[in-house]
Structures are given as structure tokens and as C-alpha cells.
Amino acid sequence: MTTTPDDLGIELRRKMFGSAGAEKQIDNASDFTAPMQDIVTRICFGEIWQRPGLATRERSMITLAMLAALGKEPELKVHVRGAIANGVTKEEIREILIHSFLYCGIPAMVGSLRAAETVLTEIGA
To answer: Alpha-carbon distance 11 to 18, whole Å?
Structure first.
């Protein structure tokens, strides 16, 4: 039996975000948002995150840096959970976000650290 990008994507989403970030996101999608969930599962986590060359841990670290740079705190919160599941430590998360200050500015660093701390406290990390 061949493993499809859909299979790989849902498996990785489940590992990183639990059922709430995998099956529940798909099951709760409306007709309007269902295509987005398909793209996230199949392309994002089933293809791009599966590419050789970078481990999921490294991809999580890069994702946190990019989300900090973009000022996307809600999405950063989601990916802090995924980063912890992928083996990124609390200290590494802090250092990535402090490092963002050099290239993204103080507001990006402050917002990202606050968002990450909220999640880390919630999950007891």
C-alpha cells in the first residue's frame, strides 16, 4: 500500500498538534474552508514538511523565525506546540525569538515571546 501526501500530512499534523490540530480541523471545516484544510494537510504537511534535507525539528525552528518576522502571533502559538512536539526546547524557542529582534525589530520579538510564553505555560513546558 502506497502512503499518500494526505496520509503523511495527517500523520504529521496529529504528531505535532494532536487531534485538535489534525482530524478536528478537517472535520470542523466548512464548505468554504475545506479546500484550505486540504492544502494544509496534503501540500504543507504531506509534501513540503516531508522533503529531505531538513528534519521536522529544523523546519519547526525556521517556521517560528518566519512567523515572528511576519508578526503572525496566532499562527506562532500553534507552531510553538508543534515545535515542542518536534523536539525544540523551550530555551531554543526563546533564543530564536530573541534573535528575531536583530532582523525583525523589537515589536516582533516582544509579540512573539509573549505569544510563545502563553503556549509554553498552557502546556507546562
So the answer is: 10
